[in-house]
Design brief:
The chain is an all-alpha fold. About 60% of the residues lie in helices and about 0% in strands. It contains nine helices and two strands, in the order αααααββαααα. The longest helix is centred in the middle third of the chain and has 32 residues.
């Protein structure tokens, strides 16, 4: 008995499924993508943008009947001035066609032990250097900025000054100086005795720029300690690969200076100012951390 084999049924070839895009590798590099020349360019352009912004604010204030030296106009002008540098840094960081990531500026998670150790070492070192310098040159006087912001005129002026000095300035200045300028200058690899000293030179240069940037808000005799603080913050940024300990130390220093030197607050009040400032900085900047990458490691 013969049988006929069943007909061969060929199923259609399955359509190729596109391969998923490779996952973005965790960020492990600490060298930003923008070149060295962007550092001086950003300083010059940022200064122009900041001054023009401040002039615009003063003009608007005058049109509304406010004095150009009133605390409100001064506060808004200072905020606009700092944001001008932030915008300039973002522009130059993107000028090479590569969209920068937050981690390029140092918004990286850092182990608590590493961050706390760097914070304490830099803070103690800064205050020791300041104490020695103060004994040698007989430091006296206070910062000009809090008085310009009218801290003794009203509660609103005090709150505005505290937010600017202890929150806005640490975020904006750390972003610009340690996040952008220090990163760019580090790309200049300078060899001495077969060793690359480019990072140390970048820290010194950034510290000098940081001190000079406070010429209008601090007495001239304080510029050297502030320059050393800028240097120490660069070392913290380098060793932790993170901007968070830098912002924390900057905010704590400003809070102590404002609360103790200017307002003559007691310890509990200063601690409250520090805690509140750190909490606001964390709320604003922690979402920028590269949560998909590995935590920052000590160098």
């Amino acid at each position: 008995m013969s049988s006929v084999p069943p007909p061969q049924v060929t199923s259609p070839e399955p359509e190729p499924v596109p391969a998923p895009a490779p996952a973005r590798p965790p960020d492990t590099s600490d060298e930003p993508p923008w070149p060295v020349w962007t550092a001086p360019a950003a300083v010059l352009v940022g200064l122009v943008v900041g001054v023009l912004g401040s002039v615009l604010v003063a003009g608007i204030g005058a049109a509304l009947g406010a004095s150009t030296t009133s605390p409100g106009v001064t506060l808004v002008s200072d905020v606009v001035f700092d944001l001008g540098f932030v915008a300039t840094a973002l522009y130059f960081a993107s000028a090479n066609g590569r969209h920068p990531r937050p981690s390029d500026f140092g918004y990286r998670r850092v182990a608590l032990k590493v961050g706390a150790a760097a914070f304490l070492l830099a803070g103690v070192g800064y205050y020791i250097v300041t104490a020695v310098y103060s004994a040698l040159v007989k430091l006296h006087g206070t910062d000009k900025l809090p008085k310009d912001l009218g801290i003794g005129t009203s509660t609103a002026a005090l709150v505005g000054a505290a937010i600017f000095v202890c929150v806005v300035a640490p975020i904006a200045e750390e972003f610009f100086f340690r996040g952008f300028i220090f990163g760019a200058l580090r790309r200049a690899h300078v060899k001495l005795g077969g060793r690359n000293i480019g990072t140390w030179l970048a820290a010194i240069e950034t510290g000098i720029l940081f001190g000079i940037a406070h010429t209008g808000s601090a007495a001239a005799q304080y510029l050297i300690p502030l320059g050393f603080l800028g240097f120490a913050l660069c070392i913290v940024r380098w060793k932790t690969r993170s901007l968070y300990p830098c912002m924390a130390l900057h905010s704590v220093n400003n809070s102590i200076a404002l609360g103790y030197n200017e307002l003559h607050w007691n310890g509990a009040e200063i601690v409250g100012l520090i805690a509140g400032s750190i909490a606001v900085i964390a709320a604003v900047t922690l979402p920028l951390a590269n949560r998909n990458g590995a935590p920052a490691r000590a160098s």
